[in-house]
Amino acid sequence: MRLRSALSVLFAFGILALPAAASAQLGLIPRAGIYIPAGDFAEIDDAVEGTIDVEKEAAFALGATLEISKLYVSLDYVTGSQLSTDGLANGDDLGNGSMLAIAGGLVFRPAIPLIQPHIRLGAGVKRQNYSFDDQGFDIDFPDDDTDFALHGAVGLTLGIGGLGVQAELADYVTADGFSPNDLILSLGLRLGF
């Protein structure tokens, strides 16, 4: 249901931007890649082991970007990111998390033939959901959370005409104490219209 709502917002933003950029280039980039969490997820105070860091593990990510002239809207979804620690007995798997993020802003793409770099700068929202097995530990994990996020991405497109292969590194940055950076390294197919 949330994915449908996010796709509706993506579609509505694209339709609203069309009249202002009717003669501009339109690009659709479906992407797949890997989610790379930056930093520790949380800390556990254990009487025997002391403070132990809980880490979010890398996971599969899917996304899509719609570009209309200098505007863009990006949607990214990550599921199955394990929350784990190696420092506790039977603490290898404490739960898992998913992330849905949508952002919009400006794209800077110089007109260079064959290899085309790009930078995206914008803002949006990031929704994180968690399920936990706290195994009797006193762990203060966050509730499901939706936060304002700054979005940035850098990448390269290799292609001719309206068709190309795109590699991109994107980051959703929040002021949230848990998982403030969510990096996504992806490969996509750029379809230009």
Describe the protein's topology.
Elements: H1 2-17, E1 26-38, E2 42-46, E3 50-56, E4 59-68, E5 71-84, E6 95-108, E7 114-132, E8 145-160, E9 163-173, E10 181-192
**Unreliably modeled segments:** 15-24
CATH topology, anyone?
A: Porin
Top-tier CATH class = Mainly Beta
Helical content (DSSP H or I, runs of 4+) = under 10%
**Rg, nearest Å:** 19 Å
Number of discrete domains: 1
Shape: elongated
Average residue pLDDT = 76
**Terminal CA distance:** 29 Å
User: Got a strand count?
Assistant: 10
Largest sheet: 8 strands, antiparallel, barrel
Order of helices and strands: HEEEEEEEEEE
Strand content: over 45%
The number of helical runs is 1
Question: Do you know the CATH architecture?
Answer: Beta Barrel
Looking across the biggest beta sheet, what order are the strands in? Answer: 1-4-5-6-7-8-9-10
Structural class: mainly beta
Can you offer a commentary on this structure?
The protein has one helix spanning 2-17, and strands at residues 26-38, 42-46, 50-56, 59-68, 71-84, 95-108, 114-132, 145-160, 163-173, 181-192. The chain is mainly beta and 193 residues long. The longest helix has 16 residues, at 2-17.
Essential attributes:
mainly beta; Porin; 8% helix
Short summary:
This protein is mainly beta. Helix content is 8%, strand content 63%. It has one domain: Porin.
